[in-house]
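A student in our group prepared the protein record below, which I am reviewing. This is what I was given:
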Amino acid sequence: MPLSIGPAVQQTRQEGMHEMTAERLLIVGNGMAADRLLDELYHHCPGRYAITLCGEENSAAYNRILLSPYLTGEYNEQDLFLKTHHWYRERGIEVHLGGAVEQLKVEQGFAMTSDGRRHDFDRLVMATGSLPLSLGVEGEQLPGVMAFRTLADARYLRQLPAACRQVVVIGGGLLGIEAAYGLVQQGKQVTLLQRGQWLLNRQLDEVAGGYLQRHLQRLGIEVRLGVSTRRFIGAEHLEALELNDGEILFADLAVQALGVTPRTELARQAGLQVDKGILVNDQMATSASGVYALGECCQWQSQTFGLVAPIWDQARVLARALAGEQDGYRYQDFATRLKVSGIDLLAAGVTSSNSCLTYEDREYGHYRRINLDEQGRISGIVLYGDVSAGNAFIDLMKQQKQVSHLGSDLLFGPQTTALEAEPEAVEDANEPVATAA
């Protein structure tokens, strides 16, 4: 059932000695991007807008990052929610949950939701998020084949009956690994399928991927590499998967964790320019005047987004733009971390390079790889087992400091004193400065 929070009353603001009706700002979406934007708006321009927020899910805004630890039982459901009803009421924000925006008339300035409500606006923010990718193969619509993306998905997985014993998780990325870990913690027999030749192949190199695989196997997760799913098999419910080599893998449940794609259908219908995501400029403005987008639904230059950190930057930039302040979005690489107990892992930047430094301690399960560009600057890092120097390495990446003169000493943590001194000479920036990984 649709749920409304906050007063549906006309709001005003003071402009000099005159009282003026506040501009109507409609935010479509109630995920982490929209929630962060509300915080930034309250900081930069409190009271400037009469804000209405429409969310498709029945739940209040929640921290999607915590779905994996919620699945393992580390968090209760109440720990996930980002704001109370009182927070919205206190700030005069009108919230409508459980009613998707189905019609958007940008030029006329209104939106219609599935429950028949009309929401008028002067300015509009699209924060529609993303949709989980799926394989698109035969049998995908069978009961027992699902995604792991929303709070409703996590609730379902936390309440699986004892009869659901064999679970297959498809996708060896962050979410797939975290889902597999959460399910094995519930006593399920879990098989993790990865099409690539190692886990987290977009973030890690093969050596670090091997350490991760062995750790997951010690936790009781069977890891299968280089395999894909040809079809799902079952009459009225999932019974098995057929793999690309013809093998039949019996399962009571299959969880697809294959990544996401920006949710753009509403923007496209409304006439906004869309590529992979809703196209935005440096101020997060779309192709239509007074219409903005941020988060997983948007595309800045050629970049789309799936991590929280860049979306926080976007929320700040957009709030400042709505406040009439000057700012511009600039993308930067952010570190990848895995939320699995006992695994310390951090990766940032590029995963491969012609020039790199590597260190491996197999007894303790420690591995480091520092990738260098042609100018001798850090272009990427992979840390496994000991990530204590991670933030210092990331700072060096952001500062674009030339560090190749430090040689293998760099592997044991950036030394401030050594970095303060400029290198005496660099014979050839294109010459490899370390062993190949």
Remarks:
- The domain at 145-256 is CATH 3.50.50.60 (FAD/NAD(P)-binding domain).
- The first strand starts at residue 3 and ends at 5.
- The chain has a mean pLDDT of 90.
